[in-house]
Design goal:
Elements: E1 6-12, H1 16-27, E2 32-36, H2 43-48, H3 50-68, H4 83-107, E3 111-114, E4 116-119, E5 124-128, E6 134-144, E7 148-150, E8 162-163, H5 165-170, E9 177-181, H6 185-196, E10 200-204, H7 216-229, E11 231-233, E12 236-243, E13 248-254, E14 262-263, E15 265-268, E16 272-274, E17 307-309, H8 320-334, H9 338-341, H10 346-359, E18 366-368, E19 373-378, H11 381-386, E20 391-397, H12 402-406, E21 413-419, E22 425-432, H13 435-448, H14 452-456, H15 467-477
Parallel strand pairs: 1-2, 1-6, 2-3, 6-17, 8-15, 9-10, 9-15, 10-11
Antiparallel strand pairs: 4-5, 5-6, 7-16, 12-13, 13-14, 18-19, 19-22, 20-21, 21-22
Helix pairs in contact: 1-8, 3-4, 3-6
Length: 489
């Protein structure tokens, strides 16, 4: 047992939400103890999420690009894939980033405990290490950042051929026929990786479109492209999975169901559940909502005032940048940042916007790293309609963009929505090459409350894909010259 030291902040969970909170709190002069069950920091994002998936997606993109180069008169032989070397690259990227986090943590003199944490009171937590050794930590404030785990469908048998996203990222082999249950971002990213490596992909999605939260017209170019390579069934459910020695048989229900139903592996990608069980949360009186997420207010405060929650454990959207943003916010509030909010400096205005961001998950960008990428921020068209907000829409098809045509990305689309009441941007969406990078201009426009004229009058370099955002704004502003103005269409 440690001496009677009482930490200013105890952070439970060392993913992007937890380590960001711990680092920021330490930088603000607080004594911090960071507890993580795994021997390494980084959480889902670094070890079995964002980073490994993006590394493998880069390899998939290289394979696809090599095949498409023939359009430009360049012919490569069929790529030879060495799974061992691909995995080694993925692991090297993870190790490098994990080592970086270790260094950042040490340099800040944060006390780091490796083990499973369980609250025993509102001021103490017991950490159980790998060999059962227990240590008690006393604290004044706690930040819970325990993340999430894959949702397990009921009645699906356990079998090494039935995967969740973590198993899929281990890439032990490439099945000939892969069934993916769930047409959301994770399912589609995995489809892209395994398709490039040679698997025949079937995707079933219960709702009426892939990537259900995004607008259908934004997703359409991706859907049309993927349909040429995969079998995709929307409004379809898997009703039964049967294990045979040489295959997995799946049964479906829906308007249009896959024929055959035999696969070599099945990936279940139907969402994630918060990690809240077995760590004393309910026992010390913390409130979970009906879906099991830790309940917090817009400042990440739980029903117990000195307990905060950040990241996946507090709910959607389950994204690393949301987790880290919330982690910083919680640390700053514990450090007394409230005072800065009441001053009237420009810095305060930005802080105020950040607080609004924390309250409004709709202002956090979402990206599907598919090919083409899909990215959106703020209100989607369907959300604006559901909220009865009147808007003007600018939609620019990339077929009229010189850069898009040059790089073979003419199937893309950029759209932006502006509030009819005050002219300010409400949301934007991009489908196309590098959409995940391009969306950040819209994120900034949203944070600064830009109008269509502000965006249209901002000089964009030519020829770039970024121009398409300005063109979408110019359509609403009425000043477009790279397409016909709306009145003449
Ligand atoms: P986590 O990263 O899950 O970290 C929680 C940590 O808490 C874990 O390390 C866990 O070991 C630890 N822990 C839990 N309970 C305890 C306990 N009692 N004691 C001690 N330690 C504990 N997001 C993006 O923004 N972009 C992407 O491209 C992206 N791609 C993804 C791809 C996949 C395949 C997956 C699965 C997720 C992806 N995500 C992506 C989501 C992203 O990984 C999560 O939103 C993010 O990791 C959440 O961070 P967190 O800190 O809340 O939780």
């Amino acid at each position: 047992m440690s001496e009677e030291k009482v930490y200013d902040v105890l952070v439970l969970g060392g993913g992007p939400g937890g380590y960001t909170a711990a680092f920021r709190a330490a930088d603000l002069g607080l004594a911090v103890c960071l507890v993580e069950n795994e021997p390494v920091l980084g959480g889902t994002c670094l070890h079995v999420g964002c980073i490994p998936s993006k590394t493998l997606l880069h390899a998939a993109a290289a394979i696809e690009e090599a095949c498409q180069a023939s359009e430009y008169g360049i012919d490569f032989p069929r790529p030879q894939i060495d799974l061992g070397r691909l995995l080694a690259k993925k692991n090297a990227v993870i190790q490098q980033l994990a080592a970086g986090l270790d260094g950042l943590c040490k340099a800040r003199k944060i006390t780091r405990l490796n083990g499973y944490g369980c609250f025993t009171s509102r001021s103490s937590l017991v950490v159980t290490g790998a060999e059962g050794k227990q240590e008690e930590v006393q604290f004044r404030n706690a930040i819970i950042a325990t993340g999430s785990r894959p949702f397990v469908l009921p009645d699906i048998p356990a079998d090494p051929r039935i995967w969740d996203s973590t198993a899929a990222l281990h890439l032990k082999s490439v099945p000939e026929r892969l069934l993916i249950i769930g047409g959301g971002i994770i399912g589609l990213e995995m489809a892209q990786i395994y398709s490039a490596l040679g698997a025949k992909i079937t995707i079933v999605e219960m709702l009426d479109q892939i990537i259900p939260p995004a607008d259908k017209d934004l997703v359409q170019p991706l859907f049309l492209k993927l349909k040429k390579h995969y079998s995709i069934f929307t409004k379809t459910k898997v009703t039964k999975i049967l294990l045979a020695a040489d295959c997995i048989e799946a049964q479906f229900a829906g308007t249009n169901v896959p024929e055959g139903g035999q696969f070599d592996a099945v990936l279940i990608a139907v969402g994630r559940r918060p990690n809240t069980a077995g760590m004393g949360l309910v026992e010390i009186g913390l409130q979970l909502n009906e879906r099991g997420f830790l309940q917090v207010d817009e400042r990440q405060v739980t029903n117990i005032p000195h307990f905060y929650g950040v990241g996946d454990v507090v709910g959607e959207p389950m994204l690393a940048h949301k987790a880290s943003h919330e982690g910083k916010l919680a640390a700053e509030i514990i450090a007394g940042y409230k005072a800065e909010l009441s001053s009237s400096s420009a810095q305060t205005k930005l802080m105020h916007l950040r607080y609004e961001l924390a309250i409004n998950p709709g202002a956090i960008p979402s990206v599907a790293y598919t090919n083409p990428e899909i990215a959106w921020v703020g209100l989607t068209e369907k959300e604006a309609k559901a909220k009865n907000i009147e808007f003007d829409k600018g939609k620019f098809l990339w077929g009229a963009s010189g850069r898009a045509l040059s790089v073979g990305a003419q199937m893309g689309v950029t759209k932006a929505l502006f509030d009819k009441a005050n002219g300010r941007i409400l949301g934007a969406g991009i489908c196309g090459m590098n959409a995940g990078e391009l969306i950040h201009e819209a994120v900034l426009a949203l944070a600064m409350g830009a109008t269509a004229r502000d965006i249209g009058r901002t000089v964009h370099a030519h020829p770039t894909l970024a121009e398409t955002f300005a063109f979408a704004a110019e359509i609403v502003d009425g000043s477009i010259t790279d397409a016909l103005p709306p009145k003449q269409r």
